[in-house]
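Below is how a single chain appears once it has passed through the pipeline. First comes the sequence as given, then the structure the pipeline wrote out for it. We keep one example in the README because the format questions we get most often are answered faster by looking than by reading.
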Amino acid sequence: MDASTRINELLDSTDTESVGTSMRIPTALRDAAAIAVSELGAASSTTTLTTDALRARLEAIVMQAALDAHYAAHPAVRPSLAELALAAAELDGHPLAARPDLIEEAATAILEWRPHADADEVLLWAEARSAGAA
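Resulting structure:
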């Protein structure tokens, strides 16, 4: 059984048994969580806030592992940086969503000097280039 399957099984468990644990966390983080609970109603307790955040992070890790495995098995389906930037622009309602040509140019240009650039950097670069041309 692989790690992702085991993590999913544990997260799906209906077992309500709990265990006391001692975690060392920064004081400021603990205090911020307490304020989020008491003043913003973020959760019923800091323990609930912490376990919900841990569960969400573990679910994201499993999803990323599945996506990575899919791309390893099917590298041709991995979206390009320009495709990711265009999708981000469309999701955010960014005006550059209507200019895929500028996004493609920006992605090509930025990868020349920043090979690990992300979609947000591409949009920023495309926005800067379009503002400079205006």
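The chain has a mean pLDDT of 95.

See the next section for the split statistics.
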